[in-house]
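Subject: mismatched residue count in predicted assembly?

I count 583 residues in my input, but I want to confirm that the predicted structure covers every chain. Input:
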Amino acid sequence: MTMQTIWSMLADPNMQWIFIGCTLLGLSSGVIGCFSYLRKQSLMGDTLAHAALPGICIAFMLTGVKSIGLFLIGAGVAGVVATFGIGYITRHSKLKQDAAMGIVLSGFFGLGIVLLTLIQHGDYGNQSGLDKFLFGQAASMIASDVITMTIVCALLITVCTLLFKQFKIISFDPGFARGIGYPVAFLEQLLMLLVVVAVVAGIQAVGVVLVAALLITPAVSARYWTDRLGLMVVLSGLFGAASGAVGTWISASVSNLPTGPVTVLAATLLFGISILFGPQRGLIAKRLMRQRVKERFIRENEPRIHEQVKKEAAL
Amino acid sequence: MSLTHTVSSRNAKTTAPLAINGLSVAYQKKPVLRNVSFEVKEGELVGVIGPNGAGKSTLMKAALGLIPSLGGEVLVYGKPYKQQRQMIGYVPQRESVDWDFPTNALDVVLMGRYGHLGWFRRPGAKDKAIALECLNKVGMADYAGRQISQLSGGQQQRVFLARALAQDAKLYFMDEPFAGVDAATEKAIITLLQELKKQGKTVIVVHHDLATVQDYFDSVLLLNVELQAYGPTAETFTQEQLQRTYGGRLAFLDRSLQHPSFSGGKGE
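Triage response: the counts match. Full output below for your records.
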């Protein structure tokens, strides 16, 4: 894969759209994913993605039109119902959030698959392609999708920049945030809404099953390189964008490789590099530090041990 | 009846730093606080004492509006707390947050300035100077740039105190600041409490260690779901009142009270 192939790939106008779309998708998911991860809601993205499927199906069944805007509304409504469901279960039973998420996630996904089958075997004319939402098909991205993606990306980054302070404090200490008068419930719902938007924008390219990876993996990887939230958010966005770019590039160079899964694999590879080589938290850095401490301990204590041995020998 | 009650208390125009009237809170069905009323005098250090599950933290959270109450009124300097947020500083329990969060000590203290900033403004040079000064007051200036997970428990507690100082409030709520801290931090906290008192600020502290109550606080508030007693430490912190508050389950008592220890019997 030389510069030549990258160039020829980018020269194809169709590929250009897909390339830009996937890069923007990675960027926006990476940014918003940081806050989900720090609020210990990494799996919320996965739940919202799976919940989006029946929402999209119902939107299609009601209107018979394939349009990102309508799907966004359907997925958004389904996402809100799912989060309320999780909230209701955790508040009114002894179940923990992970169990509640598991139940809601699989329930919604089951419903989604049933509806999808109904659509495919029913007499909805323009149904072809809806099943692509399961695993995604970046190749189907067209100019208008990329425009939507650009708007979504600009919106997410603008909101996260303007409300950085608020998102930071509700992620670290929501009790304190409420104490100084921030509308914490509203801000939490807003963050959730942004996650829904990122998920729905990503479903077309990556599919409901894998889209959560773009929220979680870049954020976790970025955490290995920095101890500052601002830098972490920027790095996470860059990691996501790089994964999208590399995913498109590889899938364009090697025939028959799907873009979405390759993008997720690229993000996973970045995570592997981060967990190994992260400057302080990385596994290698930690092992080296432990070894240094051990060596110093031995060096400092050796003379004393020698003395003791001598004393014992003298006795 | 409750209406006239509210009206009369508004008319009374209390200007006490904190006036709580008939506050009740329940989790699910179980009442945690029942009809608690008291008024705190300006410039006092008040210790809130009671057994586990007595509602001490709940009292604080309900007063701050962090959890919903069943009824009752909370007035801060004569007005509902919602209008007086800038006057209130809060130090939550240290365990309530994840200390592995990607931020440093100075950044946490800066959060204390957020209430004074607008919705979109970032903390500026002046806020940074204030935050540094607050870190200095708790003896943590050298640790400003330190990642918070690399601080000891006592140092983390002091960072939380510095954040509350940065709020520049008149009334402070502290939820067990002495829990699990080393001697150096305990001393730093006490010095700070004394300084706050000197500045005329009012501090309400949830406290567990009965042995130090008499040294630390001007007034004590004994709580066990209902208010048991409230008043100057010398008159209120007595063997009789404590026995009532702890319901005979007191396993440890200050020796100066000359009281034999009760065994912590579970079945009563």
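The domain at 3-281 of chain A is CATH 1.10.3470.10 (ABC transporter involved in vitamin B12 uptake, BtuC). Marking this ticket as 'not a bug'.
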